[in-house]
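fyi for ur records
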Amino acid sequence: MKARAFICGVSGQDGSYLAKFLLEKGYDVWGSSRDVQGRTLSNLITLKIEAKVNLLSMVPEDFRSVLVALRKAKPTEIYYLAGQSSVGLSFDQPAETIQSFVLGTLNVLEACRLLDYPVRLYHAGSSECFGDVNGYPANEKTPFHPKSPYAVAKASAYWLIDNYRDAYSLYACTGILFNHESPLRPTRFVTQKIISAAGRIAGGSKEKLKLGRLDIARDWGWSPEYVEAMWLMLQQDKPDDFVVATGQTNTLENFVSEAFLYHDLNWKDYVTQDVEFFRPSEILISRADPSKAERILGWKAKILMKEVVAKMTIGAHLT
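which gave:
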């Protein structure tokens, strides 16, 4: 029987790359969006896979909608990647962010419990759950201390997965992913904002790039690599949670510098700081210990920050 995957949030960055990855593995791929008829699905079109994915409309906060979609798709693997994905936007839209993750995750878990056959569930967690770990590398045993509505929502969903796994013996796991980028990132994300502005300035634009704090530090990886780790989690004998990251941390200033250096420009000539982009609370240093993923899954990131910047700039995955 052909393996069948259902990707909740297939139109996003990770959902689109995951769909491409699974199609190449020979999967029958189904994907959901809130309104597939009214949405462009530009990422799937960019990756030239729109016609290969079976699309369904599904509202994660509506249990009936979730159950109907899963019964129609009949997946053996479910990847829950849906929800409001911007940390910054979560401060402006806390209720929508929390509902999309917590209620959505709960509904998928309940639907899995009611299906009359076993299914494996992957849940997209986030390094934001850890909060500020004072420069220490976070692993699967590091306590959560969320510092944004987005992180609170992700942490809550993580514990729902943990609870249903224990209480109902569901095969459900969480990938605690650190920052991962690609050319499919929307411009509301600071990494794409930087890459896009550097390109325009190199092309003659006289604009200044306005950013918030430049001293924050993150672990930046490459999204197409990270979707493989998601898949590998569902191929194990037992469900478990894994930190997924490169293990290398860089400041945002370093990221900006690389983006402008790619065009032989000095970033200091084009970047200004603006308090408008300071968040109410901010994680200063995000550092990861992904050794468990390497040990058990056999997965290790190959593409590090400098190459991530180059790939985002030239869109190498499209050629």
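The radius of gyration is 19 Å. thats all i got for now
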